[in-house]
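We examine the record.

___
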Amino acid sequence: MQYRRLGAGPLEVSELSFGTWLTAAGGIERERAIACIHAAFDHGITLFDTANQYGAGEAERVLGAALKSLPRDRVLIATKLFFPVGDEPDQGLSAAQIAKQLDRSLTRLDVDYVDLYQCHRYDAATPLEETLEALDRAVQSGKVRAIGFSEWNAAQIDAAAKIAGDDGLTGFCSSQPQYSMLWRKPEAEVFQACARHGIGNLAFSPLAHGVLTGKYLPGQPPPADSRAANPQMNQFMETAGRHYRSDALLAAVEQLKPLADELGLTMAQMALAWVLRRTEIASAIIGTSRPAQIADNVRAIGITIPEELLARIDATLNAVVVRA
């Protein structure tokens, strides 16, 4: 494993992070989820990403239980807030919500502090000053070491940085955008905004919901043991991610296999190496259902993809890439 600084903040993170959404989606039993978390740590992964919303808090509880047997000073816990938790009607990034949800997350995780507290989305209904002041109080209280956000646009990032700078508040050190060979929206503006303000990026869905592993083939149903075939785990593929199941896209992805073979890599390893080649990326978040998948993914660390092959990847995927 190799490690990178997360923006200008206090955290150094493993180049691969472990995301816990799958552990709360109903497709993995608790014991196997904990085994995956322990396997990730054994392979040098130190950042574990979750959210209060995942499984109405169950992902935080499972992560907390798994980390109990690991040294707290060697793991980084990242969680998020914004969306409703379970049947609760309230959501957002108000000062009251941040105070309440942070304490509830700490209780479920069974820890005194989290290393990274993230705004899961932007809250247009709450003044940005209120959100940043509340997050700053959380940092000053010792309950949070650093703060971040997920899926904010460049204008929102710039506005937050200006307020934090003008008012002497804790600034964001991390952004969590969706980013992969097939989803390149952050390249247009978000990466540049983050660079302006010393913010690192944690890429989620670097394997495009598993599509970039090559397991899904055009004109064929998904494998029975895959995420796409599990109604408890395929919600993103069936809504915003439906694009990933088109025959045209899957046919293009199938053409990546010979390129991965040239590198001596699996398709998943090539896709992760492609994401990690960007200096803007501090870590790529992986979600696995089996410990063996972690060992496979970790082999992407330190891989350099030649420029000529990067150009061939772009040519292969050009018609199906989402850029804006």
About this structure: The chain has a mean pLDDT of 93. DSSP finds twelve helices and ten strands in the chain. The longest strand covers residues 144-150. The beta strands are 3-5, 12-14, 16-19, 47-49, 76-81, 114-119, 144-150, 174-176, 200-203, 281-286.
